[in-house]
Write a structure and sequence with these properties.
Layout lengths: L7 H18 L3 H6 L5 H12 L5 H21 L11 H5 L15 H15 L10 H6 L3 H9 L4
Helix pairs in contact: 1-4, 1-6, 3-4
Length: about 160
């Protein structure tokens, strides 16, 4: 069901990690997340073979999470907060034109807020502000982000 909230945050998180890895390595996104043909494990094996140095699946996933968190940190630096993580008004309030006669309803704001809480929790980001926490920045070795966030009172 398209409006189901079950496991949605986990699905989004997995796709974010995979897209970040895919983009960083120069693979085609269609073969990874769209067709699920190349898994992170396979990408690690191919990358290891290409560079002649062993890179594990876990290292690639951590790199993907660093990328996603850096992107979020950039948005935070530009002033983004949880209130910016919203669906467009039309999706929340207008009927879907391509489904005439169907009772289609997007998720409610309450459901979206629940999914955001789950999503931020999976990332280790603050639930209220949506900002990456010191703990997750340390875990991802993003000390330079910690320094900048401290200067801007974002931690």
């Amino acid at each position: 069901e398209s409006t189901s909230t079950e496991k949605r945050a986990e699905i989004v998180r997995w796709h974010e990690d995979c897209y970040a890895i895919t983009d960083a390595l120069g693979f085609c996104a269609f073969t990874t997340t769209a067709l699920y043909g190349l898994t992170p494990k396979m990408m690690a094996e191919m990358w290891s073979a290409a560079i002649g140095e062993e890179v594990s699946e876990e290292e690639l996933i951590k790199a993907g999470r660093r990328i996603v968190t850096l992107e979020k940190a950039y948005n935070v630096r530009c002033g983004a907060t949880r209130s910016d993580d919203r669906l467009p008004w039309r999706i929340m309030n207008e009927d879907a034109e391509d489904r005439p006669g169907e009772d289609f309803m997007a998720n409610t704001q309450k459901e979206l807020d629940k999914m955001l809480d789950e999503y931020y929790g999976l990332h280790g980001w603050d639930l209220k502000s949506s900002w990456p926490t010191r703990k997750v920045l340390e875990k991802l070795d993003l000390d330079f982000v910690i320094e900048e966030f401290e200067k801007k009172n974002k931690l």
